[in-house]
Design goal:
41 strands, Immunoglobulin-like, alpha+beta, 6-stranded mixed β-sheet, Pept_C14_caspase
């Protein structure tokens, strides 16, 4: 039963109710919702809705015009109630309907089927309370006896986490809470008259929320590397998500540190016995996790070098032996990394035994007192009592005299007492085959003595593998296995001893299967905390160092050339083909479009060393110092030669190359 006849036309409503409906329709543009629904039901165009917005008189309003349109369409009270109910405009519906008592039809406990709910951190707690009545019900949520601000819909969503903030999204209110948000949640439902007076209030059944622990998760890892001076105090810190109620236990080199059970480890009066790896075991009642390792080592005083020089040789294209896949890239990688930390680098590719010996001699002359020297060789090698490096012209059945042994190398390098010498041999250390090379086992080897004069503890010898073991390359990999790991540490600011220790550990953790037959090793006599990153003195260099720098100095050159028969002029650039190699030179012709360029050695070399790219109009020459004649640059058009010129290539190469070919 209602106070108004359901068949009464809207125009017959009492003036006060009529005006109240108009005001309610205009509030928050509710009229648009009703107008869209009417237009859909009566199949009216959007022009009809737009016409409601046009105001001709001050007393007009969209709500008033919409109600007038309904009058014209013979709208009754019952039809208006149906339309308002379909649009969920319950506040307006209550104006023309008798009050209906408030009733909670769905309690939070009924939807959950329990009155106790356990929720872990990071999860959503969704609570729902549904009520009916006219005027429509309003909602306020409570946690224990505290009203939750802005939580005024029939649904409440809680995100259980450690931080506190608030966010409203559409019709739901999202609350991010502390663990203290455990407790009872209930909803208060109430009705308010249009004049604002309270009609009735009901309270839902309460849901008791319990917050569960979650697995520990690390938010802050320990610092990976710490260098600490002797006698200093230091701390290592880690952090887990506090809401998981974590517990901590620190370890040093897998030894449990008793009573070190906070997230901060304190070490007093640091000494060498405190060096090593530290990590923390973090756990709670349901899970555990380990932090990453913190590497703690002694911070020794930084040293300085007079100069830092390196000789890097890569042999890959052998006359009589298998071609290697990665030597060139390995040597280029270490050469460029050494340049980054201040080394002057001699980097050479594919050398004969004579060229190797000459390069070693030139390099050794600059290895004098105060100098850091590094030698790296990538190529074929073997071991018979000591290590031997093979040049590219080594015969198929070779003897020890056809190779360069490590003692010969050290005898030259240690002659002038360098401050530090590092020798890295990235090659196999397998024995020659007795079946295919029996002669080498009958050869009497030459004995080379070597020793330092003053610096008795200045040598590090590093090997990509151990005695009588292979050193591997991978197909389709840019670098060899050893360089892949050496390159991670070669320019790190750590002592040279630590550098090779870390390389060994890195390799041990990564090598699998057959690769584990390759076991890198190193021998060390140094006692000072040398680093490859050590600075150099800012003072005048010695004569030998100045000479070396002059020999390896090289920059791109651009020259003009004339093709006389065709009266054509062009520029030619001469540069290094692949940094940092000094003995591979690129020659590129510029400014000559619509012609073909070809390059020839005027006197053919025994071993082809000239390669070209006709599309780019360039060539590159390996070991140009071996060329006996000039380079011929030929110009053709439509495959017919029209001109040529001669370039004396030896005039444009590093001075060093001329000396190693003597």
């Amino acid at each position: 039963m209602t106070r108004l006849d359901k068949n009464m036309y809207v125009e017959c409503l009492p003036v006060t109710l009529y005006n109240e409906i108009i005001n309610a329709l205009n509030k928050d543009a509710a009229w648009i919702t009703l107008a869209n629904h009417v237009a859909e039901e009566l199949q009216l165009s959007t022009l009809w809705i737009h016409s409601l917005k046009k105001i001709k008189y001050p007393s007009d309003s969209p709500g008033q015009k919409l109600l007038s349109e309904l009058n014209i369409k013979m709208c009754t009270i019952e039809i208006l109630r149906t339309l308002l109910n379909d649009c969920k405009l319950y506040d307006i519906l209550s104006i023309i309907s008798d009050p209906e008592p408030l009733s909670i039809v769905v309690h939070p406990t009924e939807e959950l089927h329990t009155d106790i709910l356990k929720v872990p951190f990071g999860r959503h707690l969704h609570l729902c309370c549904k009520a009916v009545g006219i005027p429509p019900p309003n909602y306020i949520w409570y946690h224990n006896s505290n009203q939750l601000q802005h939580c005024i819909s029939d649904e409440l969503d809680l995100v259980i986490t450690w931080y506190t903030s608030q966010k409203i999204f559409r019709y739901f209110y999202y609350l991010i809470v502390f663990a203290s948000q455990a407790g009872e949640y209930r909803c208060e439902v109430f009705q308010i008259k249009n004049d604002g007076s309270l009609i009735s209030t009901l309270t839902s059944k309460a849901v008791t929320v319990q917050i569960l622990s979650i697995p520990v998760a690390i938010e802050e890892q320990p610092q990976p590397l710490l260098e600490v001076k002797e006698g200093q105090n230091f701390t290592i810190c880690c952090k887990a998500n506090n809401y998981s109620k974590p517990r901590y236990q620190w370890f040093h080199n897998n030894t449990k540190l008793e009573e070190e059970t906070s997230n901060i480890l304190h070490i007093k009066q640091f000494s060498l016995r405190n060096e090593g790896k530290y990590y923390c075991h973090i756990y709670n009642d349901i899970s555990e996790i380990y932090t990453e390792r913190a590497h703690v080592m002694m911070d020794f005083p930084k040293l300085k070098a007079v100069a830092k020089i390196a000789l890097v040789i890569a042999n890959e294209d052998y006359d009589c032996h298998e071609r290697l896949l990665t030597s060139k890239n390995d040597a280029a990688c270490i050469g460029n990394l050494l340049k980054e930390i201040g080394f002057e680098v001699i980097c050479l590719l594919n050398l004969t035994i004579t060229q190797m010996k000459n390069a070693i001699k030139i390099f050794s002359e600059a290895l004098e007192e105060g100098v850091y020297g590094l030698f790296y060789f990538a190529g074929h090698g073997f071991k018979m009592q000591e290590n031997y490096m093979l040049a590219i012209d080594a015969p198929e059945i070779y003897l020890r005299k056809d190779a360069i042994c490590e003692s010969e190398l050290l005898s030259a390098f240690l002659e002038n007492d360098p401050e530090l010498l590092i020798v890295i041999l990235d090659m196999c250390q397998t024995l020659p085959s007795k079946k295919f090379n029996p002669e080498i086992y009958h050869e009497v080897p030459i004995v080379n003595e070597y020793k330092s004069k003053k610096n008795l503890r200045n040598l590090i010898q590093a090997y990509s593998t151990s005695s009588h073991r292979p050193s591997y390359e991978k197909l389709n990999c840019k670098y060899g296995l050893y360089m892949e790991h050496l390159s991670k540490y070669i320019n790190e600011d750590i002592t040279v001893t630590k550098l090779f220790e870390e390389v060994g550990k890195s390799i041990d953790s990564c090598f699998k299967g057959k690769e584990r037959n390759q076991i890198p090793m190193f021998a060390v006599s140094v006692t000072k905390p040398f680093r490859l990153t050590d600075a150099t003195y800012e003072k005048k260099l010695s004569h030998n160092i100045d000479c070396l720098n002059e020999l390896i100095s090289y920059s791109t050159q651009t020259i003009n050339v004339l093709f006389k028969p065709a009266n054509m002029c062009s520029r030619v650039t001469i540069s290094l083909f692949m940094e940092p190699y000094l003995n591979v030179i690129r020659i590129k012709v510029l400014d000559l479009p619509n012609v073909e360029i070809n390059f020839f050695n005027s006197i053919p070399t025994k071993r082809n060393n000239l390669f070209q790219d006709q599309h780019e109009k360039e060539c590159w020459i390996h070991n140009p110092q071996i060329n006996e004649g000039s380079l011929i640059i030929s110009v053709s058009k439509n495959s017919i030669a029209i001109s040529a010129t001669v370039l004396h290539i030896k005039n444009y190469i590093p001075l060093l190359l001329k000396l190693i070919n003597v």
